[in-house]
Specification:
Length: 82
């Protein structure tokens, strides 16, 4: 009880992009509706990406990187330099 495994750490790292996609959107003063439009999805689905309820598809990751002019490593939380 209370023990963390390597899988727990790996799972935590998988979701490092969640605050990044929200923070980048907010830094640009963009709405979820606008990002959903850019990604050709619904605002509801995009909201689920930001909350981690749904995994972000690769095609959306690529579009977000282009939109925000950041690397995929930055967006995924693997690197702190944009």
């Amino acid at each position: 009880m209370g023990r963390h495994t390597a899988d727990d750490k790996s799972h935590e790292k998988e979701h490092l992009y969640l605050p990044r996609i929200r923070d980048l959107r907010e830094d640009e003063d963009l709405t979820q509706d606008y990002i959903a439009y850019i990604l050709d999805t619904s605002q509801t689905m995009y909201s689920q990406y930001e909350r981690g309820a749904k995994d972000l598809p690769l095609r959306h990751l690529i579009r977000l990187c282009k939109l925000y002019r950041v690397s995929s490593d930055y967006l995924l939380g693997m690197d702190d330099s944009k």
